[in-house]
Structures are given as C-alpha cells and as structure tokens.
Kanamycin biosynthetic protein
Amino acid sequence: MGKLGDMANKAKEMARSHPDQADKGVERAERMVDERTGDKYDSQTDKAADAVRRSYGDKDKPAH
C-alpha cells in the first residue's frame, strides 16, 4: 500500500481509539461546509458525516 493508504489507515485507527475527538472534528468540518455553502448541501454533508462516523465505528451519533 502507498503512503496515502498508510496515512488513511493510521487516521482511521486514531479515530477508533479516540471517537469523541474524531466526532468533534467531523462535526466541525460538517458545520464549516454548511456555513460556507449556506446549507445548500446540508443533506450531502449529513450523509458524508455519517459515512465518516461509520468508518471509525461511531454509529450511534446522528448527523446534525
């Protein structure tokens, strides 16, 4: 696997180890995109945030 794949795997492992911190980052990123786009893509950012949360195992957190 290349460097990018290795970095992605390390990031996922860190998120699994610290799901609360990872969730704060996901929420912050989702909110920033929604603010910058005037909520134009809100449903897409909700789906993306859910997908990210599933990737590190935080399935109980709903999208905002």
Q: What stands out?
A: The first helix runs from residue 3 to 17. The mean pLDDT is 88. The radius of gyration is 13 Å. The chain is about 75% helix and 0% strand.
